[in-house]
Amino acid sequence: MSPATFEETEAAVTSEAEVSGRWVPQQYFDPGFKEAVVAQLNALRQLAEGWDGYHGCAINHAIVDAAIAVIQRLKPHLAPRPRIVPLTSGGLQLEWNTPVRSLELEFETTSTIHYLRWQPSAQIEDEDVIAADDTPKVEALIGWFARSDV
Hints:
- The protein is an alpha+beta fold and 150 residues long.
- It has one domain (6-21, 57-146).
- It has helices spanning 6-20, 33-43, 61-73, 135-146; strands spanning 83-86, 92-97, 102-107, 112-119, 124-131.
C-alpha cells in the first residue's frame, strides 16, 4: 500500500469527523508563540560562515525574513513552538516532532517551503514543495501535526 498524500489524509479525517460527530478541535494557547519564534529566527542572523565548525554557509537573511513572514501570517494558537534548525546550505528548518509524528518545513529559498510529513502508524510519509505565501496550506500542515485525532 502506498503512503497517503496530504490531500487524501485531510479528506479522510474530515469525512470521519463529520460522520462521527465527535470533532473537537484541539488548540494550543501560547500568546508568546510568534514573538518567541521570531526571536529565534532573528538569532540565526548571527551565524557566520563556518558556524557549524566546518564550511556551513551563513544563514541567508532573506530566508530568515521569509520564515518570519510565514510565522507572522499564521493564526494564533495553532501549534506548539517548533524547533528551529539552521542548515549548512544557508537555509533553515522548522521542526515539530513527537515519537509518533513529525513535520518539517524547510525554507530553501525565499519563495518556497519543502515539507516532510511522517506518521508511520497512519502510513503517512510525504513531501512536496509549496509556496511560502500559501498560508492556508502551511496552516493545514501545522494543524495536521497539532491534531490529536490523526
